[in-house]
TrEMBL record:
It comes from the Bacteria. This is Uncharacterized protein.
């Protein structure tokens, strides 16, 4: 299963910094609020977005 989350959703859910680390991105980069990230099920569980 793949989970899609936007930058703004990640910020709202409080997982933005952890998401950036998963993707090797820098917090000082510019991101659009609707920029999307595709997570694996395991990554979504790790970020506590879903439970298994």
């Amino acid at each position: 299963m793949k989970i899609v989350i936007s930058a703004s959703e990640a910020m709202e859910k409080g997982v933005w910094i952890e998401l950036l680390k998963l993707f090797g991105r820098d917090k000082d980069e510019d991101f659009l609020p609707n920029e999307e990230f595709i997570l694996t099920e395991e990554q979504a569980v790790q970020l506590k977005l879903i439970t298994k």
